[in-house]
Fold these 2 entries.
Entry 1:
Amino acid sequence: MKIKRAGSLVWLALAASPASYAADFPDKTITLIVPFAAGGPTDTIARLLAQAMGNNLKQQVIVENVGGAGGTIAAARVARSNPDGYTIFIHHVGHATAPSLYRKLNYSSIDSFEPIGLATDATSTLVARKDFPAKDVNELLSYLKANKEKTTLANAGIGAASHLCGMLFMSAIGTELTTVPYKGTGPAMNDLLGGQVDLMCDQATNTLGHIKSGKVKAYAVTYKTPVASLPDLPPLASAGLPGFELSVWHGLYAPKGTPAAVVNKLSGALQFAVKDPTVKQRLAELSTDPVAENRATPDALRAHLKAEIDKWGPIIRKAGIYAE
Ligand code: MLT
């Protein structure tokens, strides 16, 4: 069966039945689109999952990085891709916040995709270049009030988790800093390590190693409760910013119209990946939790995405965060 998409028109040219198409799937390499630059947390998670999913599907799953605009460029591209199972997409909580952050998106986070399953969950961490003056959250809050003009805050563009975290933080402390967008927090981290930018709020997946080796200074986690791998860091919610909470979850999607039997095969491969011992161990080293197997399913992701869109809409509107 060949599935082609021409503009908004999707047509199926059936050379065989959908069942036999799914039975043969996959018979070539699958591309997993990462909506951020290489070297960041989404890329790290994607590469671990791709390897394990490929083992399960007995086909290569390759990662392609399509960074920019907080993940929305990649999302729009995947939304327009052939719904044949050979182009799939990983995105995080940003897929749920983009509809509220952007006045106009040329895709729908719900209607343009078939959910494959949830994948991981991680805390974000508020970190600074290692010689940043403040030694703890209290000092940081006073420092920022007095030095807001000269303090820079990196993010991966509007729609990125680092952007959301930074905006929530600035809104909570009532202080606007100069934000510096990158195509992902991989390159942003390079600049933080090099001292070209001051602060970033990014997933532990990307920061834990640098925190442990002392290459960045860490102030707090964004989970509501303390995190075992970072026992010295207080949750922002108990460090002067009550109610602050951000958990960065990732999920996998296929373009709308991908046959259900193909989506189910991909979901089976994802379920294999989240319980793969190598994946679990590597994620644990990055303070990132794979979901339980029964959440790596289309239904679980569909319900979670909807709940997160409903949750973040009012928070984003209240904080007055928008992209043009
Ligand atoms: C984010 O800020 O959304 C991510 O950390 C981006 C990335 O994975 O590079």
Entry 2:
Amino acid sequence: MALRNIREMGDSVLNKVSREVKEITPKIRELVEDMYDTMYEAQGVGLAAPQVGVLKRIVVVDISPEGNQPITLINPVIVEESGSQTGDEGCLSVPNKCGVVTRPEHVKVKAFDIDMNEFEMEADGLLARAFCHEIDHLDGHLYVELVEGDLKVLTEEE
Ligand code: ZN
């Protein structure tokens, strides 16, 4: 298990556009494993490679409470979206804060898995929100750009 340092808002790497992954190398596999370790340790539901300082189009997501439904997205693209949901969102790169963001209720994502097999996946609710949030990171965008109203500060109990 290897934890990587999570970059925080203000670090310019978070505002850059990530590059597509051309092939899966041992280094990429190690990066993805470390991203899961880092995300689970930080109790997040998603992490994008730029958040650990690597400008590659790689996202890991797991919204299950048990942390046993990992989804790896390489070069993900949202190909369909519909509906809308408005709710609180947070980010491991913006610690102890949250804010209200409106996202599509439903998305269809096209991506490659860790063996570079292309797949499509439909998602609703929290999973759709997580996909949109993480894919935004790959284009250098943070959710704080979309927050309606003020960014809220979380207290210990929250
Ligand atoms: Zn984030």
